[in-house]
Design brief:
Elements (H helix, E strand, L loop, with lengths): L15 H11 L16 H13 L10
Length: 65
């Protein structure tokens, strides 16, 4: 959690909803995308979420999330 969220549960980058939906999509769960005015994560931020999941031993099944 510390790599993805601040102490107040706000996203450490992007927004919390985009981080969670990205993590779910990386796992193969059809989580959809955030609605405006929120923005989806940039490619580097998606890689950051994927790297965090992999370091935790959580398999990433959808590299294109």
């Amino acid at each position: 959690m510390r790599e993805l969220f601040n102490k107040d549960y706000a996203g450490a980058f992007g927004n919390a909803q985009a981080i969670l939906k990205t993590a779910l999509r990386l796992r193969g769960v059809p989580a959809g995308y955030v609605r405006r005015p929120l923005l989806d994560l940039a490619a580097e931020e998606v890689r950051r979420v994927a790297d965090t999941l992999q370091r935790l031993g959580i398999e990433v099944v959808n590299e294109d999330a």
